[in-house]
């Protein structure tokens, strides 16, 4: 069976996702993005056949590799295939044999070697595998201009192969917050890359100021890090001021945003930072480390002002200093709230994400098979 791009197989994308993408106990920005485009691509003219593949991606065992190879082999010649980077980037030997028969695109949420806590040799191995994968496919989709520039330069990808499809936002009501400044919110998976430990360390230096901090997120594959965070909060005397909710979604997550004065994102690496725009959609200012794609997500208000505070990731005391400024300066808070509300009106919705991705898939559909 050959997919010619006409008839009943016209404009269909086969989307291969990591198993657990639907797991409500382990939400992530990548999973949220994947599920949203699955839902929205039909409105942009693309039907989606979705396959969730079990395995310890991006370092799968033999069974998971064989499952991916079998799934690809079962697709018709010329089919348009989009693979989440977690599934694709660590197994170039599985993708390469199919690249002449299928039209392959890889969606990279985070370069594999950028995950925090990897041993240097493991990071180098994953980086090399990712390079081979991205050179074997026709299209690479990323979620920020920063990521596009980084991958093109780092892996030597040809001009025009990388497409940006930024995450969108849903319209949301303005967050009422509190009558002060001290309701701090961090929404992120509890992993070392997200840096919640340094947020707690910063807050420990500000124990004399009025604040409370809520950490929303699941422990995922690293439950030991959650234990580390709880111990750090207790040892710092903050056990009753730092709360852990676990993963939240829907109305429960919306309620946490509504009660927040400031979103804090202390990440070490962040290809874009979807929670930044989720907060801004509610008019909530943001304090974040100025890593990777975060400044792009934060953006600027119409008057050119920043709707938040960006601090260097490599300066341990910068986060505490910025938190002290926020808590102690009412004029600064008023200015940032005004800028956040201005930026709110400029945010792109998810319709634009699907439009960008659909454009990349359409170009791929007309790319000769095996043309890399």
CATH architecture of the largest domain: 3-Layer(aba) Sandwich
| Major sheet summary line | 6 strands, parallel
E-strand count: 12
Taken in chain order, the helices and strands follow as: EHEHEHHEHEHEEHEHEHEHEHEHHH
Number of helices: 14
- Class inferred from helices and paired strands: alpha/beta
The CATH superfamily of the largest domain turns out to be Glycogen Phosphorylase B
What radius of gyration results from the CA coordinates? 21 Å
**What's the CATH first level of the largest domain?**
Alpha Beta
Distance between the termini: 23 Å
User: Beta-sheet strand percentage?
Assistant: 15-25%
Spans where pLDDT lies below 50 across 5 or more residues: 1-9
What sort of overall outline do the alpha carbons produce when their principal axes are compared?
globular
């Amino acid at each position: 069976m050959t997919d010619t791009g006409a008839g009943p197989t016209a404009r269909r994308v086969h989307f291969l996702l990591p198993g657990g993408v639907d797991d409500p106990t382990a939400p992530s920005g990548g999973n949220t993005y994947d599920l949203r485009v699955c839902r929205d691509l039909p409105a942009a003219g693309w039907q989606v056949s979705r396959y969730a593949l079990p395995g310890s991606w991006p370092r799968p065992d033999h069974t998971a590799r064989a499952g991916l190879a079998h799934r690809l082999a079962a697709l018709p010649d010329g089919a348009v295939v989009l693979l989440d980077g977690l599934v694709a980037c660590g197994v170039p030997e599985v993708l390469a044999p199919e690249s002449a028969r299928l039209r392959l695109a890889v969606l990279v949420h985070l370069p594999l070697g950028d995950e925090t806590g990897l041993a240097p040799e493991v990071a180098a191995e994953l980086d090399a595998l990712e390079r081979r994968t991205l050179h074997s496919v026709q299209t690479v989709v990323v979620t920020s201009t920063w990521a596009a520039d980084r991958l093109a330069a780092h892996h030597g990808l040809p001009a025009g192969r990388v497409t940006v499809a930024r995450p969108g936002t849903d319209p949301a009501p303005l967050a009422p917050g509190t009558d002060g400044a001290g309701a701090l919110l961090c929404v992120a998976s509890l992993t070392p890359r997200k840096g919640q430990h340094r947020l707690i360390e910063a807050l420990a230096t500000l124990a004399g100021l009025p604040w409370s901090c809520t950490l929303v997120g699941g422990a995922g594959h690293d439950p030991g890090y959650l234990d580390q965070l709880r111990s750090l909060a207790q040892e710092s005397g903050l056990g009753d001021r730092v709360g852990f909710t676990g993963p939240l979604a829907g109305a429960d997550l919306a309620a946490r945003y509504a009660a927040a004065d400031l979103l804090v994102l202390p990440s070490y690496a962040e290809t874009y930072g979807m929670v930044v725009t989720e907060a801004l959609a509610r008019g909530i200012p943001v304090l974040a480390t100025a890593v990777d794609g975060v400044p792009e997500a934060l953006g600027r208000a119409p008057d050119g002002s920043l709707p938040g505070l960006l601090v260097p990731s490599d300066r341990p005391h910068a986060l505490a200093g910025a938190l002290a400024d926020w808590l102690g300066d009412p004029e600064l808070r008023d200015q940032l709230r005004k800028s956040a509300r201005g930026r709110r009106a400029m945010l792109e919705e998810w319709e634009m994400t699907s439009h960008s991705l659909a454009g990349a898939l359409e170009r791929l559909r007309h790319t000769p098979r095996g043309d890399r």
